[in-house]
Design brief:
Distance between the termini: 46 Å
Shape: globular
CATH topology: Rossmann fold
Number of domains: 1
Strand content: 15-25%
Order of helices and strands: HHEHEHHEHEEEHEEHEEEE
Number of helices: 8
CATH class: Alpha Beta
Length: 230
C-alpha cells in the first residue's frame, strides 16, 4: 500500500473511532524483566549446558562433539534411526564438514537441496526421504530452540517433511532467548532477510482433546542435534 493510500486509510479508521490520528507513539520501556534470572549468571558454557538440558527434556538427542568427530556422530544417529536416505541443505557450513563424503561412508542415498531442479520434481523426491539435515543459525538456551535461516539451497522442506531431522550448529551461536534472536535478525535486515525463518523446538507434538500427546503428526517425530565444540 502506497504511503498516501495508507495515510488515507488510517485517517478513515481514526474518524470512525471518533478521535484524531495518533502519531509519534513511543514503545514502553519495560523496567521489569522477570525472565532475566533464568540466564543472567550463565557464561557461554552455562548457556550451552542449559540448551542441552532443555533439548533432552524435549525428547531430543544431543551430541556435543568436536567437528572432527562428525563421522562418529552420524554413525550413532544412523544406528538409532535406521534411515537409508538423506536430503541436506546446500550450505557451505555442511560442505566444510565434508557431509557428502561422510554420508557416502554411511552407505546411504543422499542429495542436497538443489534449486536448479524442477521444484515439483524435487518435492516429489523429498517426500520419500527418511532424514533431513540442516545447519542452524542460532540456538536458544532458555527453550532448547534452534533458528533456521531458510532460502535458496536451504529449503524449508528439509526440516519439515522427513520423519527424522538432524540439525547441526556451533556452540558459539547459543544465545539466551528469543530477545537475542530477534536482535540478531534485526541486524541482518539491511542485507536482506529470507522468505522464512523457522524456530524449531524439539520434535513435532500434537495434543488432542483427551490430553494425549502424539509425536510426528505435523513434522519430524525424531530430532537429533549435533552441537559442535568451536
Amino acid at each position: 500500500m502506497a504511503t498516501k493510500e495508507r495515510e488515507a486509510f488510517l485517517n478513515r479508521i481514526a474518524s470512525k473511532l471518533g478521535r484524531p490520528r495518533r502519531s509519534g507513539i513511543k514503545p514502553p520501556d519495560w523496567g521489569a524483566k522477570p525472565y532475566v534470572h533464568l540466564h543472567e549468571k550463565l557464561d557461554q558454557g552455562g548457556l550451552i549446558q542449559q540448551f542441552i538440558e532443555n533439548l533432552r527434556m524435549l525428547r531430543t538427542e544431543v551430541l556435543h562433539i568436536f567437528p572432527e568427530e562428525m563421522e562418529w556422530a552420524l554413525q550413532q544417529i544412523f544406528q538409532e534411526t535406521l534411515a537409508h536416505s538423506v536430503v541436506y541443505w546446500d550450505d557451505e557450513r555442511l560442505h566444510t564438514l565434508g557431509l557428502s563424503q561422510l554420508l557416502d561412508k554411511q552407505g546411504v542415498i543422499h542429495r542436497s537441496w538443489d534449486t536448479s531442479v524442477d521444484e515439483q520434481e524435487l518435492r516429489n523426491e523429498i517426500a520419500g526421504i527418511e532424514m533431513g539435515i540442516a545447519y542452524a543459525e542460532l540456538g536458544l538456551s532458555e527453550t532448547g530452540t534452534v533458528m533456521l535461516w531458510n532460502g535458496g539451497g536451504r529449503g524449508r522442506l528439509v526440516s519439515l517433511l522427513p520423519p527424522v531431522f538432524v540439525v547441526v550448529l556451533s556452540d558459539r551461536t547459543i544465545v539466551p532467548r528469543l530477545t537475542e534472536a530477534a536482535a540478531y535478525v534485526h541486524e541482518k535486515v539491511p542485507g536482506g532477510l529470507p522468505a522464512c525463518l523457522n524456530f524449531i523446538t524439539g520434535p513435532s507434538r500434537t495434543g488432542d482433546i483427551e490430553m494425549d500427546l502424539a509425536f510426528g503428526v505435523h513434522g519430524p517425530g525424531k530430532v537429533h542435534v549435533i552441537l559442535l565444540k568451536e
